[in-house]
Design brief:
Length: 310
């Protein structure tokens, strides 16, 4: 397979972190072309890190989130005529550490299934606007941190139309509704068939956050969401013992995660000592509760017992 990847990047400190370089090198092993699109003001010294890795670099502060970067990378490839030379187009972003497992094996498995487009995980639940409010509902969609499209899809008029119409959205939720969920639904409506690499735990919500351990240990998920380790989702999961999970089940260099966490974590606190197994049990139990109960439990954890959220 001849492939091209568009990689969406953003960093609050305008740098290209080492975990990003690791990810890009892995993409380069399976792709003929890698396009790096940064929504930052990158210093020249940072852009130099991409030498020998990225075939094309686009640096533009656009405030259109990852889909704005995907759009720019897609049209850069189209304008150069590269789309006529490849079989698969990958959209990936820097919201994950990885790959934790070889991408070659994953692509070989998905190639045998021959879908029109696919992703690593699929979320059963989504959001929609209802009476000027956003509500949670059943709305299946592929999660946009890693998406793969066949030539049949990315050369179609409807794919072109979708990305031509991407524009700035006020909130991240609007991006999810209009673009992440919207893309899956739009392609399905236009007759394309999709598949997903990991089908485990589909009946639950937020699996890449609340069930990240199971996804790595049992499902060999190639990615771990950065927000988990940065303690953004500490009302949904615990990261107790995370280093052992990575060391015991993958060959990923733990130092890349530790260094990034230290720079980007959202809070510091000293939790009351609580056995790791009990923390994991608490959050695993919460993750499989029905939606309403799960949201209430998450709220209680967030507001009243933050000492277990490490």
């Amino acid at each position: 397979m001849r492939r091209a990847a568009v990689f969406a990047h953003y960093d609050k400190d305008n740098i290209i972190d080492e975990y990003v370089i690791y990810y890009l090198k892995a993409l380069k092993q399976i792709c003929d072309k890698v396009v790096f699109v940064s929504c930052c003001e990158l210093p020249a010294a940072e852009a130099d890190k991409l030498s020998g890795i990225a075939d094309l670099t686009v640096v533009e502060k656009h405030n259109e989130y990852d889909f704005g970067s995907y759009k720019r990378g897609f049209f850069a490839l189209k304008n150069k005529g590269t789309l006529e030379e490849i079989d698969e187009l990958i959209f990936a972003n820097d919201s994950c550490y990885g790959p934790l497992f070889p991408l070659e094996n994953i692509f070989a498995e998905m190639e045998a299934k021959n879908p029109d487009f696919w992703g690593i995980t699929k979320n059963r639940f989504g959001m929609k606007f209802f009476k000027q409010q956003i509500i949670v509902c059943v709305r299946p969609h592929l999660q946009s941190y890693f998406l793969v499209f066949s030539q049949k899809v990315f050369n179609s008029d409807c794919f072109l139309e979708f990305f031509e119409n991407i524009k700035h959205q006020t909130t991240k939720n609007e991006v999810i509704i209009n673009y992440e969920i919207g893309l899956s639904e739009f392609l399905i409506e236009n007759g394309f068939k999709y598949d997903v690499y990991i089908k485990d735990y589909y009946r639950f919500n937020h699996v890449v956050l609340s069930l990240w351990r199971q996804l790595i240990v049992k499902s060999k998920s190639p990615f771990l969401k950065c927000s988990v380790i940065r303690l953004v989702n500490r009302n949904l999961t615990t990261i107790a013992g995370w280093e052992n999970v990575i060391k015991d089940y993958t060959n990923y260099p733990v130092e890349l995660i530790k260094n990034n966490q230290e720079r980007t974590k959202v809070c510091d606190f000293n939790p009351i000592k609580m056995p790791k197994w009990l923390k994991v049990l608490c959050f695993n139990t919460m993750s499989i509760l029905p939606g309403i109960l799960k949201r209430k439990a998450s709220c209680i954890v967030k507001n009243y017992i933050p000492w277990i959220m490490d």
